[in-house]
Amino acid sequence: MIGAYLEVFSLSGMMWVLIGTVVGILIGSIPGLSGAMVIALALPMTYYMQATDALILLVAMYIGSTTGGLISATLMRMPGTESAIMTTLDGFPMAQRGEPARALGLGVISSFIGGMFAWLVLTTLSPLLSTLAVRFGPYEIFSMTVVALTLIAAISKGSFMNGLLAAALGALFALPGIDPISGSLRLTFNIAELDNGFNLLPVMLGLLVLGQVMIDSGKKSESTIQKASSSKKVTFSAKDFKENLWNFARSSIIGTWIGILPGIGGTTASIASYSVAKGFSKNSSKFGSGCSEGIVAAESANNAGTVGSLVPLITLGIPGSVVTAILLGAMVMHNLNPGPLLFVQNPGVAYTIIAGVLSANIIMLVVMWFATPLISRMMYVDKAWLLPPIIIFCFIGAYSVSGRLFDVIAMSGFACLGYILVRAKVPLGPFIIAFILTPMAEENLRSGLVVYGNSYLPLLTRPIPLFFIVISIITAVWAVWSEIGQTRKAKL
Amino acid sequence: MITIFRLRYEISFLVLSLTIGVLILISARGLPEPTYEPMGAAAFPSGIASITVFLVVLKVFRIFVEKKNLLSFEDDEESQLSLLKSFCMLLIFIVFVALVCLFNISFWICAFLFMLLAMAFLKRPNSFRNFAVQCVFLIFFSLVLDYVVTDILYFNF
Amino acid sequence: MKTLMTALLTTVAMTTASSGLATESYPTQPIRLIVPFGAGGGTDGLARAIQLSINNNNLLPEPIVVANAPGAGGAVGTRQLLASDPDGYTILQIHQEMFAASAIERVDYTPKDFEPIIQVSEACMFVAVKEDSPYTSLDEMISDIDENPADFRQADDIGGATHFPSVQLMNAAGVQWPIVPVGATSARFTSLQGGFTQMALLSPLWLERAAGKIRPLAVLGNERYDFAPDLPTAKEQGYDVTACLNRRYWAPAGTPQEYIDVLADTIEAAANSEEVQKYLAESGEVLKIVKGEELSDLVDKEYASFVEVAETVKGSLSN
Description:
The structure holds three protein chains of three kinds. Chain B is mainly alpha-helical. Helices cover 76% and strands 0% of the residues of chain B. Helices cover 43% and strands 19% of the residues of chain C.
């Protein structure tokens, strides 16, 4: 174990981590290019590398790209990677208010804390937690997604109906394709390209990035972003830290746990953590208008989730996400046998990954710490220089999903939809959240029915589903109640 | 009439939602009976589509009832946005996609022309010198992108 | 004008000549190998190992490039092959998932629309139960299902390549059991571990990967695994069912036979190289080269066996 740490913290080990982290941050920060894409590209190159170097390079890229996503999410309201979707909600308003450095600083520190917490869990509790995670069955996951879905009501403030409608629309767009249970096609309208439904990447790029590009390029005059006055140089203040102490801990725990669940991932982790943070917060009405708590919740959770998803990978050999599947491929390629016996047969490999996580987290913090003041100036760069390259990157990103024009066309369509939604003052968050969570909810509910002999009863007799369902009912009732109250007040 | 114009985005959103909701509602009826579990492939689509249609109806009702609230103001952000400019940008992008994917013109040429045009569209070049520098830079950038697209990602347009 | 005409004609003549020449010197440009699944999986792994071997050992004058086109259970990539020109410059690597998709008529193409080039590997599934399961043989499992049909479930992927042999197993055993759609082998393993399902078909690499967590009951192949000689086949236990995934290379129908031969020979040479052998050993698969006439017959026979149980797979069985 010490040997593995020494190897990772040696000069050549640090070099690979540095390369991986910086490349990850760069690619992650470009809207259109995703972390999964660069890791998939790097995989064949690692054939020529030593096994340990290859693994730490890929792990560092994974962590770097999750963090990098927050840069464009904060400065331009365009998520650089999928897991940064929730960061746009509070990061951008704060940056626009004239505090881009603070927003970025908060995001970076949160990412670091989330990552470090998950690393601690990874080193100490991996085997225990992974056996717990596999017991999280279809109904458990279904009820968890229902809790996360109630967030839709929470972030639709001021336009409750619009939020619900956007969510319903997002859910509808997630349905075409292969039915997750019967394996037959549905709602494809005889369009062969719709066999696979709409991929998340083109939908996200269209709705959140290209749509935003359209809005930005339609501005008649130069937008007046306030130049920061005194807080310009402050990247992180003790006050922010103190206020969010409990938030850091809670979001890291939620993020790590959801990351450990096979097949869920960092994006859902940040959705869930954001909704919980809002539920617990004293100033929940400020969420979505640039409050520090929102950034902390989203960014701690997505990095914790990223690291958490390594738990089932190194303890059971189960890849929980696209990226961990690639890491598993890298292990097979280098003749390392992933699975429950990894710790027994190749403990060095397991500890190399763990040490790689630690070192990538530290290097990420150092790199971002020095780069943040510089990056935050991008806020003031003329949009005319940024938007056209971003559009090209979106094109490349959409086309790279599986090399077909259809995804590019879909992206353009979703850009128009995003434009209309924004102009109609309909929040985009509920749309994308419902788009991500609905298939997960449907698949788990229906496969749960098969598991439990067509009975819905276990949803109420098993403790975890019951707990989640009670929470979601309370949240939903409370949301509707307060909405009715507000409308009444407005009328009076 | 003015009301309708001011609400043009809301109305397009509602019409769009209604169309998609009804479309999915209709095609969900044609889905086979459930075989593996009691819900079947049609349950979620019809459920969510019904909710969508219901919400649209509710929203339309509210617009008529609360006409006054909606008529109150046009905020400044609204007046700062131009639909035409946004869709021109999209149009330039679509032309770029068509040139690359349908007419098979070299990626770097299309990317260069696209970025040049889009940048000029967003901000008129103020001096010839700057324009020339921009061109050189964009050609270089496009060539790098071309390399990535053809030799690393192996796109086959 | 006349000179222009001559120039044009010469060009045309030259193009014809060069394309005529191309038959002898194929390939003259990189060959695109479509992998219809994501990076990091088994299909991707073998394709990249083969690609590496061909390119490193200069088995072809032009390189092979791998393009991942995941989606719709391999249908997105397969359609790209279908749409490409039969000129030998676009090929595909896929296993029986292709038969599954066309047998249940989820797609509008059949294996007849493609030309098989070569089969490289074979990975026969095995029947796995959880380590603490009461079953130690197929017979015990089947007779228990007979008595308590309500408590038994299999983790699989409805309409997927392993669903077909699962139905064949049900037919051979004379009992039916529900299938819980969970997805790929790693998800099946997760489901077994969680106790939500009782049995799953896993690929051979899981025998080692999941050692200590699962108990194998039978190999669904014609022979026992080399690395696990004590594990009997299903056939030895009285159930004549095999469930093997064979990674095969395909070209669009109408590709000239001499190109197919060039490709088949090159891929065979690559498959016999040390790198690919090492990769196959690590991923629990065995080298099993089949090509030419023999391969076409095998494909026809196998596809027919998929179509035979397609109706059952499509959903006449319910809980």
